[in-house]
Structure formats: C-alpha cells, structure tokens
Specification:
Blueprint lengths: L6 H13 L3 E2 L2 H10 L10 E8 L3 H13 L5 E4 L8 H9 L3 E6 L1 H4 L4 H15 L8 E3 L27 H4 L6 E4 L19 H6 L7 H9 L3 H4 L3 E6 L8 H24 L3
Parallel strand pairs: 1-2, 2-3, 2-7, 3-4, 4-5, 6-7
The structure holds zinc ion.
The site of zinc ion has 5 residues, from loops.
Length: 273
C-alpha cells in the first residue's frame, strides 16, 4: 500500500495530471488574462491552478516547489505573517523557482475584528511580501478556530485598490472550476472544514465527483473518468506541511490531523451544521 500525503505520492499525482493532458497555469496568470481580455475565452483548454496555502513548516513548501519545478510546473504559494510561514529564505527560493507568491491573509483575526486596524495591517504586510515578488493575488487563511472571517475585510473596501487582481474565494466561478483541497488531510475533508469550502461541493458530491485519497484521484486520471469527474478546469489547494516522506513527521501529521478533524466536527456541530 502506498502511504498517502508523501512527496512521492505528490509527484505521482502531478505526473498523472500532466499525462491526462492538464496544463498548469497560475491563478495570477488566469486573472491577468481575465482582467486584460474580459470578453475573450481563456487561451488554455484544460488546465489546473495549483495553490499552496503555507500555513506552517514553510521549509516543506520548498520541497513541493522543487518537485514542481523539475516537472516544469508553476504554482502559487500563499504565505502568512506568522513566523512558521513567513520565512524569507524559503519565500525567496520559491520565487526564484518561478512560482507565484501571494499573501495568505488573516488580518481580521490579528486585529480582533477592528477593520481599520486590519486594513492597515494588510497594507503593511502586502508591501512586505512585495519585496520578494510583485504580489497580485491574495487568499484568505481559513483559521477554523477564529471567530472572524478574513473575507469580511472586503465588505467596506476593495482589494483592487491595493493592486490585487485575484482572491480565489471571490474571483473564481466555481460553477466552471472544480475545486479540490487537502483540508483535513484527505480530498473530501471539506465536509469537516469550517471555511475552506465552496457551495458547489454539495452538488459535486451528489454527482459522485468526490475523492478521498490521492490514489483515488490518480486512478480517476488514468481510467479516463476525469473528463466527467474533474472537468476541464480545476483549482487544487494543498498545504505543503502535510506532504512528507519521512516516517516520523508523516506519523505526526497523520495523528495531529485526526485530532484536528475531531475538533472541527465538534465546532461545526456547535454551529448547528
Ligand atoms: Zn491557511
């Protein structure tokens, strides 16, 4: 049996996407085209936007970035302001490999819901991340235990005013783009996710467009059912800290995620889900 969420499995997954004919286009590239040519179809027929939320253990994201680079793939890496994520040497190396860098923002939680403070904090850190890369996309950090939803920052203010052209939760039409996330350390963890979810997932589940393990996805890519199940356009979100080859860190991820999933279930239950 293959262990899931290892770098070897990650590489096999990427290879099976390439073999099935998916191109890899960054979210930033897609948004640039859409902003420049709003009435024209996109130039990519079948493509994946690969997104990485670097929540912690930033060093591990350099390993996925290197694997992608070897395979000629560009992805988008979103970094938080926390010390576990914001590691300048890692951010610099990933940018040098040709990947997109973005801001994984959680300013509302940090500012305890004070919108003015949160906006000032957002601007300050966006400027910081732009010292590594000309950041043009951002992505909310889900923060399951926080009472604040990061997206509330944009109730009174427009991120376009900061030169940002894309935020996946606002700028992707999920009736056209299939979404996969490794939240919960499986591919159907949106059931226990507090914020990393999109409304279309309920419908996709009814249609059988749901996967548990990475090997389920690889099987779908090799048996041809990806045409119906994945469709032409997919955003794949991973948290690189989960993907490791070493037995001890792999076991640690495995056990801590089981505990976290239990806590999330209790939180959702408490909210009446
Ligand atoms: Zn996150």
């Amino acid at each position: 049996m293959n262990r899931d969420f290892t770098l070897n499995t990650y590489r096999r997954f990427l290879l099976s996407l390439l073999e099935a004919g998916y191109m890899f286009v960054t979210f930033g590239e897609v948004r640039e085209w859409q902003v420049k040519f709003p009435h024209e179809p996109l130039p990519w027929q079948r493509y994946v936007m690969l997104r990485h939320d670097v929540d912690k253990k930033a060093g591990r994201s350099l390993l996925t970035a290197q694997i992608e680079h070897e395979l000629g793939i560009c992805a988008s890496y979103y970094f938080r302001v926390t010390p576990q994520s914001n590691q300048p040497a890692v951010i610099r190396s990933i940018a040098e490999l040709g990947h997109e860098i973005g801001y994984h923002y959680e300013d509302m939680s940090i500012a305890n819901g004070d919108v003015e403070k949160a906006l000032a904090h957002f601007e300050q850190w966006l400027t910081y991340f732009r010292t590594f890369y000309p950041v043009k996309t951002i992505c909310m950090h889900g923060a399951p235990t926080s009472r604040y939803d990061g997206r509330d920052l944009w109730k009174t203010k427009d991120y376009r005013d900061y030169g940002i052209i894309g935020e996946p939760y606002f700028d992707i039409d999920f009736s056209q783009v299939f979404y996969l996330t490794d939240t919960g350390r499986c591919w159907d963890g949106f059931r226990v996710s507090v914020r990393d979810k999109v409304p279309a997932q309920a419908q996709w589940t009814q249609q059988g467009r749901v996967f548990h393990s990475t090997d389920d996805l690889i099987a779908c890519l090799s048996d041809g059912t990806y045409e119906q199940k994945l469709g032409k356009t997919v955003m794949i979100t991973t948290h690189p800290q989960r993907w490791t080859n070493g037995i001890a860190p792999w076991l640690q991820e495995y056990m801590s995620q089981n505990a976290k999933n239990l806590i999330k279930r209790v939180l959702l239950w408490g909210k009446g889900y």
